[in-house]
Amino acid sequence: MKTKKALERKILQHFMELAQLSGCTKIAEREEPDFTIEISGYAVGIELTTLYLDQPTHVPNIQQGEVFRRRICERAASLCVERRLPNLEVSVHFSLNHRAQRYDPERLAEWLAQFISEEVPPEGEWRWFGYPHTHDLRIPEQISAVSIGRFASLDRMHVSSAEAGFVPALSIADVERAIASKERRLSAYRVACPVVWLVISIDVGSRATMFSVPEGFFANRFQYQFDQVYLVSHLFGWARRLPASESPMVSDA
Predict the structure, then answer these.
(1) Beta-carbon neighbour count of residue 237 at 10 Å?
(2) What is this structure's pTM?
């Protein structure tokens, strides 16, 4: 199993590729911030964070059908592990026209495991099968769609039932929440390196990190004290620097 630091290095390297950072000659692992890199002779501290969907503090009781679908997914994940498949993020969209309690759970779990094993994507890719993009005759009527993602950051096989039929839109509040969680330690980061960038990752495998970015989102300005803040989509392959609402606070160090 890959260590947390090894996964962080993968995320850092992907960010550097997407941001087209040239002249980087050295990467050093740290704790505060996560890394320091040297670009054209200048040291830059890099703090990494992943943006997750903000869940409400009160979660209602899971209905019987959802529990049943979850059990099917858990069994399918176990079968995938037995087949020694690479770690994947699989989301199963069950048909709304069929009651979950009428499914044959073992048969569906075995079908899922077989389908997943036949459709393992290359690393770094996410694929969708079924409604609304295609009509795949291999998919049984109890299931409307299956999506499969393969990412280096995944440390286990994850098969889940998609309880929501949409991907939430990224909001300014989401980004501000990620920035605020890291700015609490900014003074400690600057002790190690006066110049510090924050890299916020989305779309890194888990559905809880999946966001749709509204049109015109990057026309907004964001208040932060980091020297630069980047938003990175590892699924769609882009890195964008967030415009600052005012000049960041510069350390006297």
Answers:
(1) 12
(2) 0.61
